[in-house]
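Model: Ready when you are.
Researcher: Fold this.
Model:
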Amino acid sequence: MALWSLVFMGTLTLVGASAPAGPWDAFNFAPTSRTMFPTAVKEVSGSVHNVHNLVSRGSATLIGNGSWVALDFGIEIGGLVSLNFDDVSSTSSIALSFTESPVFISPVTSDDSTYPSANQSYDGVLQVPSPLPTGFWTQPAERLRGGYRFLTIVSTSNDSVTISNVSCAISFAPHISNLRDYSGYFYASDPVSHDRNFLTKIWYAGAYTVQTNTVPLHTGRQIPMVSSPGWANNATLGVAGPIIVDGAKRDRAVWPGDMGIAVPTQFVSTNDLLPTRNALSTMFAAINPLTGALPESGPPLSQLGSDTYHAWTLIGTHNYYLYSGDDAWLQTVWANYTKAVGFLEGKVGPEGLMNVTGLRDWARLGGGGINAEGNALLYRARAPLVLVTAADLASHVNSTELSSAWATNATKLKERFNDVFWLPSAGLYRDNDTTTLCPQDANSMAVLYNLTTSPEQADSVSKGLTKNWNNLGPVAPELPDTISPFISGLELQAHFESGNDERALDLLRREWGYMLYTNISVQSTLLEGFTANGSLSYRSYRGYNYDPAYTSHAHGWSSGPTSALTYYVLGLTVTSPQGRTWQIAPHLSGLSAAQGGFTTPLGWFGAKWSAGKRSFTLHVDVPEGTTGIVKVPVAGKVTVNGNLAQSSSDGTLELVGGKHIVFVWS
């Protein structure tokens, strides 16, 4: 990882620290170079001489109008195409088209990124008209393509054209020189999947997805949108860059809800938190100074009217501070943060629950009024992640009065939430007090954010959520015919939180196994969503105009397994800023071993465990000066560094920083 620092609204210095090398590196999807060349010829039509030379940077000749070749770069990439025109006439011309999915390879249009259109051809192609230059040519910067795997080059004149040295200069993560130099890793063998390396691969697929979503400041999708055919990615995305956005191809804007999954992924894999700080600073800079309302999305979209995404910005503030310990930045946003908390608290009625009036959300139906998802997210998801966490943040800026008030509000909300939304006949939470629909999002959040009142209730929710499953994952009741990896990422964690570890891995294998291996996607980054039968027609009836070519194949909100495997299967988490305190609580999940770790400004945090029939061994490697607890996942006698140790009744050991070996046998 590059050594670098950037000053903006205080100083954040990220010191490069590489994760240990090992066999897991073979599953890192990030490329070895920022200049990418095609790895294969996917398809040819018409007359193209010496076409396979293009894979070795050699030359090929397209002869005749309509002759074309589709090149495969092997993984999701994004940036500016360059090539050499070796032999052209005065009337030779070509066009370029781009697609993530091979389903949409076409010489006449790219997959859609500007706007969803039922004819699946809004974007069209990039015309390179005559007269063509002889020699080196580069795609215009404003026509940057943020995400694709397949590039089609088509002759658009009767005269032949000879090209060579086709490449893409990667635009994402512009501040990182070595994209593969991660500061974290994960490694485990999967005894159930057809691919024993599946868990390791999906961890790295999530990490690479978020890398492709980390973009230069002036590469956002233009709003108002350019007319068809066309696209433009030269809009300004916020107050500073690089910045984290929702997707590589589109929307290429800051979306705080997406960050709720993407930022934990970012932390455990690369610890590249500057793009997150810039995104959060962008949201707080756009606060309504009178009401305290935050926008739903960053510029140039700058959409308003979402109470849930308002809350996600507050959650993101907590996550960023927990991972970075950036006190200087927290001070700069604190006044706006407290104003934003007040905006949500002002919507609590006399019944003690939030009246959701900002209805924009992740695309779910319903959600307004006294709604379970809104209340779980806006209040209890803020507790501990906003109200209690707001209380936690308040303690760091010595706002003890606010800390006490926010914690009290959170406690009251939990009681009312269970009174109003719990549906005993279903063993689940309902969407509101007038329905029996039990949504995936609110139930997942209720367990994940500790709104349940007992382990038995959490287990009931975990079991009840499986009623939505088919062989590809959960079909969301609140958005029929839709499998949402965003909400499923929350459900995945909820199963772990409720102690249903093997159920969590079952979900992971179904949904993310499909995304990683299906041949209609890029097999390196993760789909925004899909339908119940696995098609790309995600959200067709809900804003995407029945355009499957519009669906993103590199969306950070789908990377939930990356942090979940680290936090739950490996069991390693930080519990105070930068990891001054930490916890290791492995969830064995039917596995025999796992290892991994991550880096914070304090240093390396690593864990490695193995489980036998009657023994369990854990290697701990954490920075000196820190303290933490280990929750032993099996019963038996315990030694620490060879000395007999006494754990508490719940199997908890207290340890100081350094290297330790915990051994349990029965």
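Researcher: Now this one.
Model:
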Amino acid sequence: RGILCTVASVYDSLRFVAPFIQKGKQILQQLCQEKVGWDEPLSDQLYREWESWLLDLQNLSKRQIWQRNKRNAKVNDIVILQEDNSPRNKWKLARVTEVYTSADGRIRKVKLLLSDSTLDKDGKRTVKPVYLDKPVHKTVLLLEAE
């Protein structure tokens, strides 16, 4: 029962680990072919295969989403704000004014000050500054802060 429950509990909607899950299903198939009852102990060979598969399952769950380390965003970085509904030549320039650190120490969200080209004759802004909170993956680093 435990083997069936464990194999069935692996969720893989995108089929990334399908070959791995297949090995667990093959172990189940062998159990059925050998007509092993629900509560009977496994043969030595099947037990070794099962233990190996379980160890691989534990290692699989330890994989990190981030495969390479990238530089975290910093205050005063100059970025371009990606906008899904506009062409790249219309994306806005912004400066990072604040960073929000997640529990794992990575910057996932930033506060941006959008650039504005509407200035008066003295070079002062004619409109109120616009601040936005955006996920860091929606920005493209243009110039690193010193």
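Researcher: Key takeaway?
Model: The chain has two domains: 2-61, 78-143.
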